[in-house]
Each structure stands twice: as C-alpha cells, then as structure tokens.
C-alpha cells in the first residue's frame, strides 16, 4: 500500500500561518460555497464527553474530522478537544492525507472568528473600522491564546486583556501572548466596558457576558459554547445585537446562545450568515453591539486543510505512514 502522508502539528506550524488560515476561510466563503447545505455534525456520547464527526466535501476533496470533546480535561491541564483529520480524493474517495486535527481546530476556529470580526468592524454604521484598540478575551486556554494571536495577524491590535477564573492559567496565557509580541495583561470587568472587541472562549455552559457588560458599538464573538443547552451570552445581549452566524441551519441546530434568547417566545430577527457578511450584505444598526456566535462547521476544516495541502504539495513533503 502506498504510504499516506501524515501532517503533524509541527508541519502545520511550519507551512501555514494564522493569516493564511483566515485567507483560506475567506476564499472558501467567496467561492460560491453554500454554507447552509453543509453536512450536519454527528455527535456520539461517551462516558467522559463525546465523539464529534464532521464530514464535508468540495469539488476537489472529501474530508472528515474525528474529534473527542472532554470538558473535564480543562481541570487536568489537558486539551478539551483532540482530533485527527482525514482527507480523501473527491473522485476516487482514496485517502490523501492524515492531518493533526487538534492543531487544525486551534487554527481554523480563530480564523473563522477573525473573518467575522473583520467583517463586522468593516460594517460599522459609523464607518469602517480597521483596527482593534482594546481586545478582551474571556478564557485562558488554547483558543483564547490563538484568537488573540489570529486577530492580531490580520488587524492592528493595541492592548489585549485576558479574563479567566484561574489566575495561574491567565498568567500563563498572558506570558504566551507577550512572547508573540502582543501587549497582553490580566484583565478585569472594567476592561470589558472599554473594549472594541470581546471574544468569549470559555468552557462555561451559563452566560458570562450580558448587554450591560459591553460598549454599545462593541463587536462580540462567542465561540466557546458547544450544543443547544450551553451558552456564553445572556439573552439580552443576543436580542439587542446585530447577529451573524456561520450558517442559519447550523445555528438553529447547535447554538445555545440563540436558542436561549428565543426560549421565552421573544422575537429574534433572522441572523445573517458569513457568506452574506463577506459579500458586504450585512447592514449594522447604529447604537447596538454586533454578535458573532460560532458553533464550528465541517467546511471550515476542509478549507484550511486544502490550503495546508496545497502548500505541502509545493514544498517539503511530510512523513508517510503505511
């Protein structure tokens, strides 16, 4: 059997930057992709968490991410999400490569968020905003670090404040961001009220951010909640804001932020999706915040993997397995 390339986390780090991932996601959204018809994710419960299977395809490739989600791992100092990605030829369905899915996830999730944040800032009713003077991230894990890093890779970012429940983890995350050249520090709730952009990347299943916590023109990106029963945003913030989601179909299935805001019969305007945002079709209202609520979709992983494999084909090949 011909060896199948294995793309490690180190390979990804060597050939594909956060800015590359942002552009891969943007290109996919501009390509005519129909995000509303992407395959549904498949969840299977496990004693310590759950399996997550994410199949999708493009005209050139078929892929699936096999991930485990273990919420208790954060208390053990282990990754909450572990994964491998399998990519196949679209015509023959023969395996083309195995990609480290854990690093892929920490690369593509903030890339999608950065596309959303950049688009929402550009759509500001007071005029396009092209920088983030004050960034606050709620959370101190890998996604918190990578979100700050990725946003700074595509937009000028001034100060970064991290807010978390565990001071030692916050200090470690702040140190990691400083090593990457960001002006980072441990934050307080007062920082929220000054922030241009707030990212929630927590493991909380109950709201950590409400309407009264943020500026009236803030952009909020919520990416930590997984599943319809979990949410990071209070209902008043979601109800008041201009809302963008990856796709309306996936948000209806999986977004606890949106489900909770509509749970008592409140009327919620249909959110825009990322294709509409990237095409400039989203019009923001003055005097209200903007919210991006992400759940993760299969097309995002494949877009980034195809970008990685394109670079790999033009450069040094990864190791092979049989």
Automatic annotation (TrEMBL):
InterPro entries: NAD(P)-bd_dom_sf, ODC_Mu_crystall, ODC_N
SUPFAM superfamilies registered for this protein in UniProt: NAD(P)-binding Rossmann-fold domains
Entry GO terms, CC: cytoplasm
Descriptive protein name: Ornithine cyclodeaminase
């Amino acid at each position: 059997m011909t060896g199948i390339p294995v793309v490690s986390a180190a390979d990804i780090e060597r050939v594909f930057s956060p800015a590359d991932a942002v552009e891969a996601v943007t290109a996919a959204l501009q390509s005519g992709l129909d995000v509303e018809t992407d395959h549904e994710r498949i969840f299977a419960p496990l004693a310590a968490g759950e399996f997550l299977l994410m199949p999708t395809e493009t005209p050139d490739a078929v892929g699936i991410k096999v991930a485990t989600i273990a919420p208790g791992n954060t208390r053990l100092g282990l990754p909450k999400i572990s994964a491998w990605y399998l990519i196949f030829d679209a015509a023959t369905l023969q395996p083309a490569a195995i990609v480290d899915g854990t690093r892929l996830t920490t690369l593509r999730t903030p890339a999608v968020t950065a596309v959303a944040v950049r688009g929402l800032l550009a759509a500001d009713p007071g005029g396009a905003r092209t920088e983030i003077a004050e960034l606050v991230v709620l959370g101190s894990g890998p996604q918190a670090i990578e979100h700050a890093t990725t946003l700074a890779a595509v937009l000028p970012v001034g100060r970064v404040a991290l807010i978390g429940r565990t001071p030692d983890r916050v200090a470690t995350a702040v140190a990691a961001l400083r090593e990457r050249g960001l002006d980072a520090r441990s934050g307080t709730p007062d920082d929220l009220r000054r922030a241009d952009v707030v990212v929630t990347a927590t493991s909380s299943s109950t709201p950590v951010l409400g309407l009264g916590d943020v500026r009236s023109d803030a952009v909020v990106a919520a990416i930590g909640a997984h599943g319809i029963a979990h949410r990071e945003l209070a209902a008043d913030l979601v109800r008041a804001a201009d809302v963008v989601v990856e796709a309306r179909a996936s948000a209806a299935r999986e977004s606890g932020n949106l489900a909770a805001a509509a749970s008592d019969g409140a009327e919620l305007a249909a959110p825009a999706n990322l294709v509409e945002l990237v095409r400039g079709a989203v019009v923001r209202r003055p005097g209200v915040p903007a919210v991006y609520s992400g759940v993760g979709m299969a097309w995002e992983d494949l877009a980034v993997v195809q970008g990685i494999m394109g670079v790999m084909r033009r450069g040094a090949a990864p190791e092979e397995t049989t």
